[in-house]
Structures are given as structure tokens and as C-alpha cells.
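seq as requested:
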Amino acid sequence: MKYKFISDSHTHSERSFDGKDSVAMLAERALNLGLYSLTVTDHCECNEFYKENVRPDIEASVHDIMKARGMYADRLKIYTGIELGQPTQDKKAADEALSLAEFDFVLGSLHNLKGEKDFYFLNYTPENCSGLLDRYFNELLELAQSNCFDSLAHITYPFRYIYANPDINADVMQYAQQLDAVLETLIKNDKALEVNTSGLRQLIGTTLPDENVIRRFRELGGRYVTLGSDAHRWRDVGSGIEDGLNLLLKCGFTHFTVYSKREPVMLPVI
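C-alpha cells:
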């Protein structure tokens, strides 16, 4: 194995509404692959927190993670994480979710705009795409400024679905000014940028964000980057992480980050 500290910091168990497998199955997969660490970051969609009674799922996720940590203590580092979706849309829900456990790692995500469905469900057309993306990057900046997370996840998330429509020619770099504002905010607040490798398994074919944005983060002075497969089933744990490490080296990073007790731990890429 080329890399010593391969770590997957974005995974989902059956405690996420769209997860398939147990934490133990995720951990067993990570162990079999020789991963250094695994962070389970089950969903907490803050805008649905009270409507869908998300609290029991979060508590069950933490219980499962702690159990797995005991089972694999000498063989695999397992961290307690959570993915806060839309925390600025319901700050009370975000605060309550974070009070439920002593999390090692908090991802911040934006899966849907205020008043809209998840980007997965939207119907994209050449006429509406630009407006949706403009709103997305404005709300993403609001999330970055909220400072309630450790790493900002898959910041080009909508493109994962927009690229499925061949009639739309959307370029991430059309939004370079808004992206810079997001990246500069992360750097100012000592937050991490996530390199999400799920896009390598999908039609978009790139990490989220791609090389251009990762390189720009580095140019602006970005230091902390986390890597995550965004696995929702056991067999995707660790998927694309080595490709992500290759990309970090290419963009000039010598270290990446995992989080323990909400503190960044810098690990050498090689």
C-alpha cells in the first residue's frame, strides 16, 4: 500500500435515512482494506430535525460507533462524527444535535436550498440552472460563516446531479468569485475543506470539489483538508481515498487532516 494513513472521514451507516449497513460492517470493511481510521458521520438534516424526529437516530449512531470502537480498539481508529445538513436553516436543531454527544468530527453540508428539495430531486434545465447555483453558493457562504462545523463537505454537490443532464453546460469556475469567498472564509476560521471522492463513482467522474478548486484552496493558504468516500454501504468504504491522496500531492499538500475531539490531527500524505 502506497499510503500509511489512509483514512475515510465521511461514511454513513443504517442510522442515516439513506444508509444501508451497520457501523460494524463499515468498520470490518475498513479493517479489511487496511485503513488507518474511519469516521462515521450519519446524517442530521437540521431542517427536518423536529419534523422527522432525528434525535433517536443520532443517539443510536453514537451508541453503535462507541460499541465498534471497543470491538476494534487495537486494530482501527474509529471516530464519532455527524453530518449536519443545512445547519443555518435551523440553528436550534443544529445546537441540539451537537449537544447529544462529544463528537470527534462535524461535517457541514448543504443538500438543499431554503424552501427547496434536495438537489438530488430537482429538475435542472438550461433556464433554471444558473439561478439555482447562484443561490447555492450564496447559501454555502452563509454556512461557511456559521462556524458550526469542522470541515465543509462536497462543496460542488449540485454538480453531481447537473452533470447527468447533457443539455446543461455548467462550469464550476463560472462561480470562481463566490467559491473564493467560501474558501477564504474556511481559511480565516481554521476550518477544513473536504475532498469528497463519491463523484469518482458517479457520472461527474471527479472529486467534489475537483482539482481546480482544491488547488485554489491551497493557493489561498488553505491548510486543512479531509477525505471522505461518502459511503452509504459497506462496500464503498474507502472508495477513491487513495485517488484523493494522489490529488492532494498533485495540488501541493503534504498533509491531510482527521479530527479527534473536534481538534485537527495532521497526518502525512506519504
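The chain has a mean pLDDT of 97.
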